[in-house]
Amino acid sequence: MRDLIKIGLSRSRAVFILLGALYLAVYLQVSVLFFLILTSKIQMLVISGYTIGTLGLLGGITGAHFLVAGKYSYEMGNLETIGFPRWFYITTYLIQFVLVQLISCLVGLLCFQILYIFITSDNVSFSQLAIVHLKTILTVLPLQVISCAAGLWYQSRSEPFLLIKERI
To answer: Is residue 166 very low, low, confident or very high in pLDDT (cuts 50, 70, 90)?
Structure first.
């Protein structure tokens, strides 16, 4: 199993999308249901609990992306050998990072609304949840992008790359 994970981590980015989806599924089943059952009558506590859970979700996705960044050193060396500038692959990685986080947060928000309505039989406006959710995302996401960019830049400067010409 461990060897399969190593092969998947080094060869396929789809594995990280699946890991993110798995984390999202576990988060939705455990965390959201717990907060909904615990606080079915106090809506502000539900929203604050969901906000805290969203921060945890963003942190989990960030951790998965740092695993990807660890595997990027091989690609960074190859791209530098071919002639791509350093900013090119760092920018490409950051765009992927932001898109995965935004898509997962949107899916989490939609699932949360469906579960909330199903459990409490209450109609909560999507716009009310979306405003709270967007405030959380817009507060946390820039800090994560900056820290991710700094980590990638540091890694690209400090670690020796496995270059194509070293294998020849």
So the answer is: very low
Please tell me the distance from the alpha carbon of residue 108 to that of residue 130, in angstroms, as a whole number: 11
Prediction pTM value: 0.42
Domain ranges of the chain: 2-167
Six token digits for residue 97: 């990072």
Distance (Å, rounded) from C-alpha 96 to C-alpha 36?
32
For the stretch 26-72, pLDDT in tens is 666 666 556 556 555 566 666 666 666 666 666 666 666 666 666 66
Long-range contacts of 109-118 (CB under 8 A, 24+ apart): 109/133, 111/28, 111/32, 112/28, 112/32, 112/50, 115/28, 115/32, 115/33, 115/36, 116/36, 116/46
Long-range contacts of 129-132 (CB under 8 A, 24+ apart): 129/47, 129/50, 132/47, 132/50, 132/51
How wide is the angle at C-alpha 61 spanned by C-alphas 139 and 136, nearest 5°? 20
Of 76, 83, 82, 81, give the one whose Cα is nearest residue 152: 76
Q: How far apart are CA 62 and CA 147, in angstroms?
A: 10
Dump the DSSP string for 68-123. Answer: HHHHHHHHHHHHHHHT--HHHHHHHHHHHHHHHHHHHHHHHHHHHHHHHHHHH---
